[in-house]
């Protein structure tokens, strides 16, 4: 498990709804919620695809969010204009959180290098774009690789490409590239499997609703949690339907740290926090004033709280014996009394 609390990344994606002011509000919301970083995506429709209205460029009609959309038009609507990057990065740094991005081609890396991006994330769909991975890794910055849809062989190839280009700080994110993602297909049990197979820290890029899944991921060792954020799900951002609002993001920050703290150790036995409670286990006590020679009965000796007397299981041994000396109500029953 990680020696530090989970690193929380707020993904803006296209939830700025085409407004720089809204984008800056999202940065502020992420900072106010206590997130460690705000992430954007650096692409244009033209760097992602071509403007062709053919079924192969069209999202299936049954898709929950973008059914029937053509890729070019979706990316036009969702992209973050490149001239917004500098003010977004500046606002984040002013607010004390780390700005970074997912680049989708060489020109995106070049732009982000000019902005002194501190790290790069490879999106799930780009995990097989090994030249892009090598380019991002060659900057010497930390690399985060999302693994939605990927086989272990593809993940390993991506990691090896990054390492071969000089990356020494790599985090791999378990991910289900479905929007939104069904919890039952999130498969958090693969987090420790990926950690063992790759020998790298593993996090979670999560597209499920709410914060239950990422909190559970912490128990499996996730060191980084990425969640999409929106100011208001009712505003209709491209990803807003499965994004956290600011209050939920704040809850994720608090509860993920609490979950991490709760992992503790494998030690079984009383903890320091239980010392006071330990005093109030049951034991055998004299519960009525008695005099020497009086028999021990269920009327004058019972198992009560706190500790101090004989173990409760000794009741069968002491019943029928006699008191050696007088004892007042509230006296712990010990062997020297009977």
TrEMBL record:
Q: Name one Pfam family in it.
A: SAF
Could you tell me the Gene Ontology terms of the biological process aspect for this record? Answer: carbohydrate biosynthetic process
InterPro entries, per this entry?
AFP_Neu5c_C_sf, Aldolase_TIM, PseI-like, PseI/NeuA/B-like_N, Pseudaminic_synth_PseI, SAF, SAF_AFP_Neu5Ac, SAF_PseI/NeuA/NeuB
Q: Which SMART domains does the record match to this protein?
A: SAF
AFP-like domain: which residues? 283-338
Gene3D superfamilies cross-referenced by the UniProt entry: Aldolase class I (3.20.20.70), Antifreeze-like/N-acetylneuraminic acid synthase C-terminal domain (3.90.1210.10)
Show the GO MF annotations: N-acylneuraminate-9-phosphate synthase activity
Return the SUPFAM superfamilies for the record.
AFP III-like domain (SSF51269), Aldolase (SSF51569)
Transmembrane domains' residue ranges: none
Q: Name the PANTHER family on file.
A: N-ACETYLNEURAMINATE SYNTHASE, PSEUDAMINIC ACID SYNTHASE
* Name of protein: Putative N-acetylneuraminic acid synthase
Q: Which organism is it from?
A: Actinoplanes missouriensis (strain ATCC 14538 / DSM 43046 / CBS 188.64 / JCM 3121 / NBRC 102363 / NCIMB 12654 / NRRL B-3342 / UNCC 431)
């Amino acid at each position: 498990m990680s020696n530090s609390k989970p690193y929380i990344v707020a993904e803006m994606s296209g939830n700025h709804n085409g407004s720089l002011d809204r984008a800056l509000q999202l940065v502020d919301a992420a900072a106010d919620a206590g997130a460690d970083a705000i992430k954007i995506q650096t692409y244009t429709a033209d760097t992602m695809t071509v403007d062709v209205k053919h079924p192969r460029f069209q999202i299936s009609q049954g898709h929950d969010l973008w059914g029937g959309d053509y890729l070019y038009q979706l990316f036009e609507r969702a992209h973050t204009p490149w001239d917004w990057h500098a003010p977004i990065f500046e606002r984040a740094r002013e607010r004390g959180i780390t700005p970074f991005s997912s680049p989708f081609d060489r020109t995106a890396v070049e732009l982000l290098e000019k902005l002194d991006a501190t790290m790069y994330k490879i999106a799930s769909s780009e995990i097989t774009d090994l030249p892009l991975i090598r380019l991002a890794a060659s900057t010497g910055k930390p690399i985060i690789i999302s693994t939605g849809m990927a086989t272990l062989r593809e993940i390993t190839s991506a990691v090896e490409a990054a390492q071969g280009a000089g990356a020494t700080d790599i985090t791999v994110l378990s991910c289900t590239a479905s929007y939104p993602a069904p919890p039952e297909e999130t498969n958090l049990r693969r987090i420790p499997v990926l950690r063992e197979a790759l020998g790298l820290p593993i996090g979670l890029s999560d597209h499920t609703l709410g914060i239950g899944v990422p909190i559970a991921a912490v128990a499996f060792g996730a060191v980084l949690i990425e969640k999409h954020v929106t100011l208001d799900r009712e505003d209709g951002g491209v990803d807003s339907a499965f994004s956290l609002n600011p209050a939920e993001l704040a809850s994720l920050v608090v509860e993920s740290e609490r979950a991490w703290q709760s992992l503790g150790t494998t030690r079984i036995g009383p903890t320091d926090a239980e010392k006071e409670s330990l005093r109030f286990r049951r034991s055998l006590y004299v519960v009525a004033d008695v005099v020497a020679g009086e028999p021990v009965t269920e009327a004058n000796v019972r198992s009560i709280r706190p500790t101090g007397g004989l173990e409760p299981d000794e009741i069968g041994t002491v019943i029928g014996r006699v008191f050696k000396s007088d004892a007042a109500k509230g006296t712990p029953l010990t062997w020297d009394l009977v």
